[in-house]
């Protein structure tokens, strides 16, 4: 893996020529991760093979899926051979807003498979409280929204991307409404537009404090009603299937693990959309659901996709601090409960435990400052006062108003004896959103042919060094739509060779190792995961330093080697897969990407603050780029589990 900062523009789409996973553009400085062990892993796993894609004529064909037959005027349609390999025109990895919205469009032109790790609603979209930002008020403008986005992003945003998203966003919101999504209205019957931190105008479309849930509900209903979309629940994506033809890399689909049947299922497609969300669980405290283990970013990196801006991890300033609740939860939460930005947008005030308001001393915008500023301010207060949480108070607002706007938050707090209409809410920052990810163009394209990205897994250039509140659902909607036509064009020009599945060996289940050993592996893996999260929280958190980042880099490398040695010395093989082990290899991969990117950025900008370089430097206002690179020694987390068959 080679990490560098480009020297010319910050454009993320791209002006860069790719060849064999390398970039022809000059770079200014490089920080390389040393991969110290090969652990009997063969380099043939990363070698390329000839492309199996060819141009196909547009003809009528018969589609078979189980007992379902559909005659359609498309190219190769969805087929199934032995149940272990499935063929589709489009594969969508992820069931959040980006994946579902894309599926509903491309299904008009071919068969579409939505692959989701757990239940379809187990995604970041479902947990989004605040809303969707869009210019829908006559007093607002696209220029205002652009300015707010760029300021929040610490001027690292790609301006063309920002313009596209802010301009196209209102239409995407109207489309949701037409599909049946119900958003709050004001007394005048128009949409009630809220205001959140970093926004100069009221432009947040919301459904109380459960906006993501309402959007997901509407999209899932539409997907259920679409006979061309097939939902595969409890299928964990293991690795992308790729080949090389000259200087180009092509994506042909993905291997998955059905976690209910413990069967490896291979999906072959003409087009793959990666919409698998972020990597919040590299940290112990995160608002992300348990499925957010960086699977998409790690898979794409192993497939030699270009990765960008991984140092910019957004910590939401206000997650519910269980330690401050009158009644403590009986067990540790799998993910922190989010207290939406809209609480501060609605007038909520932050206090330390001495009931001293502190935000005005950090920023003139006080509680309405962007998230990176508020999170660092809270972190500073906690360290100065040696406290574990601060207080967010909205109790001066009328009770009915609070309960109307924040029913979900009020109900959650009340379960633990806290009435937010009378007392402040204990809050603490938690890992929330990855501003970096797989580098994408204006149509969601990547440097891998046939692979598109949308949502949190992508780095489009919209967020820059810090995401503006409620811009994430907006970005997902816009890029899901923009990826549709290029995907259709690629699908029409592509024919699937039914023998392509023999190109790659299949991942194997560790069934012959025995239950006792597997239980031992799982316990070791879970403990290693906790140690990784602890390292990231302690050394790669809200405030960083070069020495602490280097300590994290060293300790993660040692932890990874120790875990892999433990597995491989007891009979585990590189081609074996299991849910816990594959999640950890993805978390380790993403953690290393974050650390190497953070070490490469020698300035403080947006979400990346380092005490060694505490100021913004104009010369460093460039995206961090992680180019594909094949070192002589590889770890298990850095390569696909399958081999290319000769």
TrEMBL record:
GO molecular function: L-aspartate oxidase activity
Reactions catalysed according to its record: L-aspartate + O2 = iminosuccinate + H2O2
Cellular localization per UniProt: Plastid, Chloroplast
Gene3D superfamilies, sorted: FAD/NAD(P)-binding domain, Fumarate reductase/succinate dehydrogenase flavoprotein-like, C-terminal domain, Succinate dehydrogenase/fumarate reductase flavoprotein, catalytic domain
Cofactor(s) needed: FAD
Keyword Zinc appears in the UniProt entry: no
Keyword Oxidoreductase belongs to the record: yes
This protein's UniProt keywords: FAD, Flavoprotein, Oxidoreductase, Pyridine nucleotide biosynthesis
Pathway: Cofactor biosynthesis; NAD(+) biosynthesis; iminoaspartate from L-aspartate (oxidase route): step 1/1
Primary location group: plastid
Entry GO terms, CC: chloroplast
Domain Fumarate reductase/succinate dehydrogenase flavoprotein-like C-terminal: 529-615
Highest taxon of source: Eukaryota
Top-tier EC class: oxidoreductase
Domain FAD-dependent oxidoreductase 2 FAD-binding, chain residue ranges per copy: 89-473
EC number(s) per entry: 1.4.3.16
GO biological process: NAD+ biosynthetic process
InterPro entries according to UniProt: FAD-dep_OxRdtase_2_FAD-bd, FAD/NAD-bd_sf, Fum_R/Succ_DH_flav-like_C_sf, Fum_Rdtase/Succ_DH_flav-like_C, NadB, Succ_DH/fumarate_Rdtase_cat_sf
Protein task: Catalyzes the oxidation of L-aspartate to iminoaspartate.
NCBIfam families from the UniProt entry: nadB
Record family assignment: Belongs to the FAD-dependent oxidoreductase 2 family. NadB subfamily.
Protein name listed in UniProt: L-aspartate oxidase
């Amino acid at each position: 893996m080679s990490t560098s900062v480009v020297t010319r523009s910050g454009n993320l789409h791209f002006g860069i020529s790719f060849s064999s996973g390398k970039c022809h553009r000059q770079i200014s400085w490089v920080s390389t991760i040393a991969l110290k062990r090969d652990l009997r892993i063969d380099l043939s796993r990363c070698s390329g093979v000839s492309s199996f894609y060819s141009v196909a004529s547009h003809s009528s064909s018969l589609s078979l899926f189980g007992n379902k037959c559909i005659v359609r005027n498309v190219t190769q349609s969805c087929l199934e051979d032995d149940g272990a390999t499935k063929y589709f025109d489009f594969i969508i990895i992820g069931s959040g807003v980006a994946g579902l919205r894309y599926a509903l469009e491309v299904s008009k032109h071919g068969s579409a498979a939505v692959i989701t790790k757990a239940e379809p609603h187990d995604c970041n979209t479902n947990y989004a409280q605040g809303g969707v930002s869009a210019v829908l008020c006559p007093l607002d403008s696209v220029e205002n929204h652009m300015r707010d986005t760029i300021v929040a992003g610490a001027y690292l945003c790609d301006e063309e991307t920002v313009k596209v998203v802010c301009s196209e966003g209102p239409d995407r919101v109207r489309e949701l409404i037409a599909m049946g999504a119900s958003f709050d209205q004001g007394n005048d019957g128009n949409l009630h537009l809220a205001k959140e931190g970093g926004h100069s105008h009221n432009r947040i479309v919301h459904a109380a404090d459960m906006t993501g849930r309402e959007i997901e509900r509407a999209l899932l209903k539409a997907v259920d009603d679409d006979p061309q979309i097939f939902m595969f629940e409890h299928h964990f994506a293991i690795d992308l299937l790729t080949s090389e033809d000259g200087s180009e890399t092509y994506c042909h689909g993905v291997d998955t693990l059905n976690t209910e049947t413990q069967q490896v299922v291979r999906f072959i497609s003409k087009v793959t959309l990666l919409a698998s969300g972020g990597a919040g669980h590299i940290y112990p405290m995160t608002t992300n659901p348990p499925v957010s283990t960086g699977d998409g970013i790690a898979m794409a990196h192993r497939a030699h996709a270009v990765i960008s801006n991984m140092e910019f991890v957004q910590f939401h300033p206000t997650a519910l601090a269980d330690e401050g609740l009158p009644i403590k939860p009986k067990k540790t939460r799998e993910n922190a409960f989010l207290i939406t930005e809209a609480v501060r947008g609605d007038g909520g005030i932050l206090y330390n435990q001495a009931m001293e308001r502190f935000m005005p001393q950090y920023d003139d915008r006080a509680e309405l400052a962007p998230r990176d500023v508020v999170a660092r301010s809270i972190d500073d207060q906690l360290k100065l006062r040696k406290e574990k949480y601060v207080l967010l108070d909205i109790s001066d607002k009328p009770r009915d108003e609070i309960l109307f706007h924040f029913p979900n938050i009020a109900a959650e707090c009340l379960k633990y004896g806290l009435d937010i209409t009378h007392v402040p809410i204990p809050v603490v920052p938690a890992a929330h959103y990855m501003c970096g990810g797989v580098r994408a163009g204006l149509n969601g394209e990547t440097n891998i042919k046939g692979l598109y990205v949308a949502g949190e897994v992508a780095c489009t250039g919209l967020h820059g060094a810090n995401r503006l509140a409620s811009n994430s659902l907006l970005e997902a909607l816009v890029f899901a739509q923009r990826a549709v036509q290029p995907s259709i064009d690629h699908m029409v020009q592509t024919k699937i060779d039914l023998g392509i599945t023999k190109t790659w060996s299949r991942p194997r289940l560790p069934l012959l190792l025995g239950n006792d050993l597997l239980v031992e592996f799982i316990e070791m893996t879970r403990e290693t995961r906790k140690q990784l999260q602890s390292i990231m929280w302690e050394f790669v958190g809200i405030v960083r330093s070069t020495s602490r980042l280097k300590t994290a880099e060293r300790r993660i490398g040692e932890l990874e080697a120790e875990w892999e040695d433990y597995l491989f010395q007891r009979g585990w093989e590189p081609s074996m897969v299991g849910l816990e082990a594959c999640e950890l290899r993805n978390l380790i991969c993403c953690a290393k990407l974050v650390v190497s990117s953070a070490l490469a950025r020698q300035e403080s900008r947006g979400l990346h603050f380092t005490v060694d370089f505490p100021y913004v430097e104009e010369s460093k206002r460039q995206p961090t780029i992680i180019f594909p690179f094949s070192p002589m020694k590889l770890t298990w987390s850095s390569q696909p589990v399958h081999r290319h068959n000769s």
